[in-house]
Design a protein that fits this description.
heterodimer; A: 291 residues; alpha+beta; Immunoglobulin-like; 2 domains; five-stranded mixed sheet; 6 helices; elongated; B: 658 residues; mainly alpha; 20 helices; 1% strand
Chain lengths: 291, 658
């Protein structure tokens, strides 16, 4: 074999430095962007629980990943072909105890994560109401081409591409669409769920800190889908009630005709409405049901 | 007459026009070149009509290289657009065109680069490793290639005529329904994937039978090289999964053309069924891509550690385990569709279970190096890069498999980083490793090691830079497929970093491309003088000359262990006897190419709804098939005398060259 010798040690060191630099980028990014990293710095209980679960699984996985990395570098160095002191044992091709260890180790890890997954998947089921001393409120969400319509059935108002919520109040989102499938996601509050035409899905979230959080569609739904972002403004209960009262006073009315105009493909700025048709959401969901 | 096709279909924006012009100029240059060098006859006799698995394998690789450059260009356009299109700036692509670009990127990379490299490797290596002179169904194999090539050609045509689909690489309805995508784009996608997919199915059947029936005497299942085992698992998946794809696409195209209601929103259709079906194929598909690459590494690591593979039986069981489980995890692609926690938790846990056999494989590779003599040749460099990236991507895959975590990262760039870690870190690096490892076998000379060394560093550093920040971008709420975002998100800084990484990756690809031509130009210097065993190999393919003669093995070997060549070298078994015999080989046929061509017409006609052309080409396909299938199998004879002469000639030229 007339292959030029690779400098093994410089190679391993260079690869190590590369990985170190990439790892080092993470704390810098976190320091630079802070709260903008919604998934890591959530402002709602659900997002917080999901983040913690992510950290736990990550930590467990590192117990496997780190040894693999260490062994990769170690074996590459110790057993390099030109190491005069390397032990060479070509017949070492089977070792039952060793193999039991590496069937067993990932197995134990997977069992632990599985149990955790089973418990947490039930605990954080998006369909499950959130327990709180404050009364739950309902927001109906409709994905349109290419905007989000939020209907507040109790408050009899609606808003387009703008969502306002009171702090520390559990919110039950009922989602549907009059468009291709979208995914409703506010990273700072918690996980996403699909909004699908002719169907209803449920997502329960809660915001525990006032602020402005970006929400968007995480699933492609046609040309304007990148513009399907909205601001989620979380305020005190009082400020929320004030906003509701203002909105109720607006002359912009939402009934089926106005809705059909909104549903045409377009990109729009935020708007507010009074809800004229309390059955609007059900009408949208049942659009494809022929009687 | 021309269905939906009008002159408008030939009008494109500036960016696309450039691509079309480049493509047409390239095609003209190719035709002129072939004519000037008088290569048409060679092309027809030696390549287009061939049924030799080695030549078909090389043709697969050629298509892969072309499609890789196309897919990579798409990727660079995506990266450039996402770096530029912030706030007031709209970037250089409009939304519709951008969506076509990423849909084309995914389709190209999975169906043509991924599947092409898998089938290319299977064609080149499997018969040589199992000591066979041919595959089980040479014509079916050639036909599989030509259908694959037709699909690839149709996707290039979609660049020049009309528009491609903008509905993503899996074209979920309702977006891909007639209601929301009335144009020809989704039809292009359907027929590109349909034609290539049928090619994959029949190619898979051929290799399933080849592996089960064509092994040389003494090669029991548990003596097969691990690469063959991994391909066996992959073709089982192909044979079981691809029919699902074919049926799903057929239903989608019926919805779009004759107004059925399989996946529509109204009329009692159910688009969630499409998403289930497409992933019932799609998840096995990712294992179809990665399993053969696991096999590649299982060949390379022992060879360059001067050992045999550690834990062979474990490796086999791990492969079979993955094969089985890969069919019961598809739902993890849509935990967010609102299934009950019981369903989500079940599929989440099933997904995690795959980490066990995968972990076992990684430890077995590592302990193959243990107490070995590790040579850092090009293939081992790719293994090193694979291990570093694949483990990280595996870890993030575990995170994605936990439903509550998935809710927070699904459809974000975190997911993109994860699966690119799998397909670049796993499949692509595996293919690079295989390419550098087996290249001397089929050419007689090495690839340039120095250029590969530079390419390796470009790919390793470029990959880390281009994909690790995507994890953080995902955490920041950046979702996939965005053609534009607001400046306040703060994402642009990381998108710039990612673009720099992509440029480094592109340099790596250019160096490899240049390295290939440089190695061919410089072949005398890099000539392999070992008579076909440049790496001190262990398996049968290294026991024959390079490039292998048309009949592969002058004498069919008999094996009595897992590493037959290793045993011979270490005195475990006697050297193979040379007894020459008459060899019968199937003769060339142009039928495969013609059926491919008619399929191309058919796909084009269906896309543009030129019904007369569709009917004519469909009838032509059926008639050609009937003619071929009802004609007697003809073989050509190579007599023992000729075999003997060919063998000694080849050995002499191999040793004296360069």
């Amino acid at each position: 074999m007339k292959i030029p010798k690779k400098p093994v040690l410089p190679m391993l060191i260079a690869a190590g430095i590369l990985i170190f630099i990439i790892l080092l980028m993470q704390p810098f990014t976190i320091l630079k962007f802070g709260d903008k990293i919604g998934v890591l710095f959530p402002k709602g209980m659900i997002g917080y629980e999901q983040r913690n679960l992510l950290f736990i699984v990550q930590a467990l996985m590192l117990l496997v990943i780190i040894p693999v990395y260490v062994l990769t570098f170690m074996f590459s160095w110790i057993y390099r072909a030109d190491n005069p002191r390397g032990i060479y044992d070509p017949d070492l091709v089977d070792n039952v105890p060793a193999e039991i260890i590496w069937w067993g180790l990932p197995f134990v890890m997977v069992v632990i994560v599985s149990v955790l997954t089973w418990i947490k998947t039930h605990e954080l089921d998006p369909y499950k109401s959130i327990e709180s001393k404050n009364k739950e409120m309902t927001v109906q969400v409709v994905a349109l081409q290419w905007k989000w319509l939020f209907i507040y059935p109790t408050e009899k108002i609606a808003s387009l591409n703008y969502l306002q919520l009171p702090v520390n109040t559990p919110v039950r989102f009922e989602l549907s669409a009059d468009s291709p499938m979208n995914s409703f996601w506010i990273p700072s509050l918690g996980g996403q769920i699909y909004a699908m035409p002719g169907m209803t899905t449920i997502l329960n979230l809660i915001a525990n800190e006032p602020g402005n959080y970006r929400g968007s569609s995480a699933h492609i739904s046609g040309e304007g889908f990148a513009r399907m972002y909205f601001n989620t403004k979380v305020t005190s209960k009082e400020d929320f009630d004030t906003w509701v009262a203002t909105t109720q006073g607006t002359t912009n009315k939402l009934e089926i005709k106005a809705f059909n105009n909104l549903a045409l493909p377009s990109v729009m700025d935020p708007q507010i409405f009074t809800l004229e048709d309390p059955e609007l959401f059900d009408r949208i969901v049942n659009k494809y049901m022929h009687h | 007459m021309f269905g939906r096709l009008t002159l408008n279909a030939f009008l494109h924006d500036f960016v696309q026009t450039q691509a079309v012009v480049g493509m047409v100029v390239g095609a003209i240059a190719l035709v002129i070149g072939l004519t000037y060098f008088k290569l048409w006859k060679t092309l027809w006799n030696d390549w287009i009509t061939t049924v030799d698995h080695k030549r078909i394998g090389i043709m697969y690789i050629v298509v892969v290289v072309i499609m890789f450059l196309k897919g990579f260009t798409d990727a660079m356009m995506i990266r450039l657009q996402q770096m530029l299109s912030v706030g007031d700036s709209q970037g250089f692509l409009d939304a519709a065109h951008f969506q076509e670009v990423f849909s084309a990127h995914g389709t190209t990379m999975i169906f043509f680069v991924g599947m092409g490299s898998v089938f290319g490797l299977m064609n080149l290596i499997i018969p040589l490793q199992i000591g066979a002179r041919d595959v089980a169904f040479p014509f079916i194999n050639a036909l599989g290639f030509w259908l694959f090539a037709s699909g690839a050609l149709l996707s290039l045509i979609s660049l020049a005529v009309g528009r491609f689909s903008g509905a993503g690489w899996l074209a979920y309805p309702p977006l891909s329904s007639l209601q929301y995508s009335p144009g020809e784009g989704v039809d292009y996608w359907i027929w590109i994937v349909q034609i290539a997919g049928i090619g994959s199915t029949i190619g898979g059947i051929n290799f399933l039978v080849t592996i089960l029936k064509m092994r040389c005497p003494g090669m029991t299942l548990m003596r097969m090289p691990i690469f063959v085992w991994s391909c066996l698992c992959a073709v089982i998946l192909i044979v079981l999964a691809f029919p699902i794809l074919t049926a799903t696409l057929a239903m989608l195209s019926l919805d779009r053309t004759i107004g059925t209601h399989f996946f529509t929103v109204d009329g009692g259709g159910n688009y969630m069924m499409y998403i289930n079906l497409i992933w019932a194929w799609g998840h096995p598909e990712v294992y179809i891509l990665i399993l053969p690459m696991f096999g590649v590494f299982s060949e390379i690591v022992p060879t360059f550690s001067e050992k045999r593979l550690f834990g062979y039986a474990s490796m086999v069981w791990a492969l079979l385990f993955i094969t089985f489980i890969s069919f019961v995890v598809w739902l993890h692609h849509f935990f967010t569709m609102g299934a009950s926690p019981y369903v989500n938790a079940f599929f989440g846990i099933a997904t995690m279970v795959i980490a066990i056999p995968t972990g076992v494989k990684i430890f077995n590779w590592l302990f193959t190096k243990f107490r070995g003599r590790v040579h850092f040749t090009s293939p081992m460099l790719w293994f090193f890069a694979f291990l570093l990236n694949f483990t990280v991507a595996g870890m993030t895959g575990m995170l994605l498999s936990v439903p509550p975590v998935d809710f927070q990262v699904h459809n974000s760039l975190f997911l993109i980083a994860h699966f690119h870690g799998m397909v670049i870190g796993g499949v692509l690096f595996g293919f690079f490793a295989a390419f550098t490892y087996w290249f001397p076998k089929f050419t007689g000379f090495y690839l340039d090691e120095r250029l590969n060394w530079y390419a390796f560093w470009c790919w390793l550093s470029g990959f880390l830079l281009a994909f690790m920040p995507l994890y953080m971008l995902g955490f920041m709420g950046a979702t996939r497929r965005l053609d534009h975002y607001e400046a306040e998100t703060g994402w642009q800084f990381l998108f710039i970093v990612v673009f720099i990484g992509a440029i480094i990756l592109f340099c790596g690809a250019i160096i490899q491309f240049a390295g290939l031509f440089w190695s061919i130009y410089n072949r005398k210097k890099n000539w392999d003088h070992t008579n076909g065993d440049p790496w001190n190999g262990r398996t049968l393919e290294w026991s024959i000359p390079s490039p292998p003669p048309i009949y592969n093995f002058a004498t069919i070997p008999t094996v009595n262990s897992r590493d037959p060549l290793w045993e011979i070298k270490h005195g475990g078994s006697p050297p193979a006897k040379k007894e020459y015999e008459d060899i019968y080989l199937p003769i060339n046929t142009s039928m495969g190419c013609f059926i491919g061509l008619f399929s191309l017409f058919f796909g084009f006609a269906m896309t543009w709804q030129m019904w007369w052309l569709a009917i004519i080409s469909f009838v032509a396909i059926i008639v050609t098939l009937i003619i071929r299938l009802s004609s007697a199998d003809k073989h050509k004879l190579i007599t023992a005398e000729v075999v003997k002469k060919m063998e000694s000639d080849q050995i002499r030229s191999q040793k004296s060259y360069g």
